[in-house]
């Protein structure tokens, strides 16, 4: 009988076409309702994670989960866009953290029924990617997150930082650990 194959951590990450130019720009260029959501990814000791990759999905301001096609169509040589015209709202972003663990996404406000950005975190040391949510407003009644105790729910709330800017830090472990979700257990569309 053979021993099971040991787990491996997520990665390695290849800079070629994974983060792509404009990957954090979900909102159409120059849209007046654009909001900026930014933050840092921290490890268990509180140090920034300089090589994490985050993906974001969200409903359109009108509530549709369909988005527009084109988010993932990329030129394999340049990493540029093939099909995304910079005008349509696609509902998808992919960004890498910088040397200080910082990331930024520019998007449109999600609808009141789904006031969050769904976040998937890939980082060194993880055996599986992690799912969480960044709520720009508190979770609505009936949302499973609304049932979490206050201190846990607070890890999912983005903090307003001035007009149209929010901060959402991801803590992979430790006292401030972000709540991560088993999306298979959540009811309805994610």
How would you summarize the topology of this molecule?
Elements: E1 35-42, E2 53-57, E3 92-96, E4 102-107, E5 116-122, E6 130-135, H1 150-153, E7 159-160, E8 165-167, E9 170-171
Q: What would your notes on this structure say?
A:
There is one protein chain. This protein has 190 residues and is mainly β. It has 1 helix and 9 strands. The strands form 2 sheets. Strands 1, 4, 7, 8 and 9 form a 5-stranded mixed β-sheet that branches. The longest helix has 4 residues. It is globular and about 60 Å long. 25% of the residues are buried.
User: Which structural class best describes the helix and strand composition?
Assistant: mainly beta
Shape descriptor = globular
Largest sheet: 5 strands, mixed
As a percent range, the share of helical residues equals under 10%
Q: How many helices in DSSP terms?
A: 1
Strand content: 15-25%
Q: How many DSSP E strands?
A: 9
Mean pLDDT: 83
Instruction: Give me the Rg, rounded.
Output: 17 Å
Assembly annotation: single chain
Low-confidence stretches: none
Q: Secondary-structure element sequence?
A: EEEEEEHEEE
Distance between the termini: 40 Å
Quick structural gist:
With 190 residues, this protein is mostly beta strands.
Which key features would you list for this structure?
single chain; mainly beta; 5-stranded mixed β-sheet; 4-stranded antiparallel β-sheet; 190 residues; 1 helix
């Amino acid at each position: 009988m053979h021993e099971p194959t040991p787990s491996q951590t997520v990665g390695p990450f290849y800079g070629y076409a994974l983060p792509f130019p404009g990957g954090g720009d979900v909102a159409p260029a120059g849209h007046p309702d654009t909001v900026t959501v930014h933050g840092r990814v921290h490890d268990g000791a509180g140090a920034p994670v300089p090589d994490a990759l985050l993906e974001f999905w969200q409903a359109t301001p009108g509530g549709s989960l369909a988005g527009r096609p084109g988010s993932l169509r990329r030129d394999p040589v340049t990493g540029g866009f093939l099909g995304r015209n910079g005008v349509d709202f696609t509902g998808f972003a992919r960004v890498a953290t910088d040397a200080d663990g910082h990331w930024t996404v520019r998007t449109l406000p999600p609808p009141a029924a789904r006031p969050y950005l769904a976040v998937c975190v890939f980082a060194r040391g993880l055996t599986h990617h992690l799912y969480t949510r960044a709520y720009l407003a508190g979770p609505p009644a009936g949302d499973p997150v609304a049932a979490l105790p206050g201190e846990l729910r607070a890890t999912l709330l983005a903090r307003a930082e001035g007009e149209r800017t929010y901060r959402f830090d991801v803590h992979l472990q430790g006292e401030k650990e972000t709540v991560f979700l088993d999306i298979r257990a959540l009811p309805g569309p994610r």
